[in-house]
Structures are given as structure tokens and as C-alpha cells.
Amino acid sequence: MTAYLGIGTNMGDRAANLRGALDMIEEQAGHVLACSSFIETKPWGFQSENSFLNAVVAVDTPHAPYALLHITQEIERAMGRTHKSVGGVYTDRIIDIDILLYDDVEINDVELTIPHPLMWQRRFVYEPLLEIAPHLKQG
């Protein structure tokens, strides 16, 4: 199955954080098929002096969606993330990994929503996504 993951960071050595997350995704989640360019953007949904560095990665994964979610959450914890954004309240973070798409799977529950509901509203998601998967379109 092919999953598209959005990754972002606005703390510390941001490029090293993204590269470290990519290495861990390759080791734990599945084979990285493609990675977009890194894109620098201002924080979305909150104020911070720290700009974000973001990318989207395509992963050939043997893991089911919920297993992949738990793997990405464990990667975040291993990299030092102490809490997730809840209820639309965002903060600075060393790493954030979101499942954007998982083949044609649709899930909508309290734990996981696929496709990611805000991906077409966030330039830092849709630009890198379309860079590596131009066949995808909003819809």
C-alpha cells in the first residue's frame, strides 16, 4: 500500500529533524518511494517566531492505517515530541508526522481521518504532495 505522509518541524536543526524522521520512516514504516523538496513556511494556526520546514513523503508500507499511525506517533516520541496538537491548538514542535493519504482508504473517526481533512487548505502540504504525486488532485 502507498501512504503519503506530511512531515514538519520548527525547532532545532530543522533539516536534520526531517532527515532523521525520513530515516526512521524507512526503518519502521516502509520503503520511502519519494520525498518532496523541503519547503519553508510560517506557522499555520498559531503564532511563533520559528518557521517550519515541511516535506511530503510517499511510503510503500506493509502496515495497516492504524498500525502506521501508531508507528508515526512512536517516531515522533522517539524524536522528542512530548504532545500532539489537540482541538485545533497548535504549538512549536520538533517533528510532526501526519498521514495524508493511504491508497484509496477513507477513515473518519476520533483516532484517524484519511484523507487528511485539511491537506488541500495547507500550502505546505499540497505543494510538496503534488510535487511527488502530480496525478493527485483536490477532490
Walk me through the structure.
The chain is an alpha+beta fold. 28% of the residues lie in helices and 26% in strands. Strands 1, 2, 3, 4 and 5 form a five-stranded antiparallel β-sheet that branches. Strands 6-7 form a two-stranded antiparallel sheet. The radius of gyration is 14 Å and the shape is globular. The mean pLDDT is 89.
Radius of gyration: 14 Å
Biggest β-sheet strands, sense, barrel: 5 strands, antiparallel
Strand tally, please?
7
CATH superfamily: 7,8-Dihydro-6-hydroxymethylpterin-pyrophosphokinase HPPK
Q: Structural class from helices and strands?
A: alpha+beta
CATH fold descriptor: Alpha-Beta Plaits
Keywords for this entry:
139 residues; alpha+beta; Alpha-Beta Plaits; 5-stranded antiparallel β-sheet; two-stranded antiparallel sheet; 3 helices; 7 strands; globular
Q: TL;DR of this structure?
A:
This protein is an alpha+beta fold. The protein has three helices and seven strands, in the order E-H-E-E-E-H-E-E-E-H.
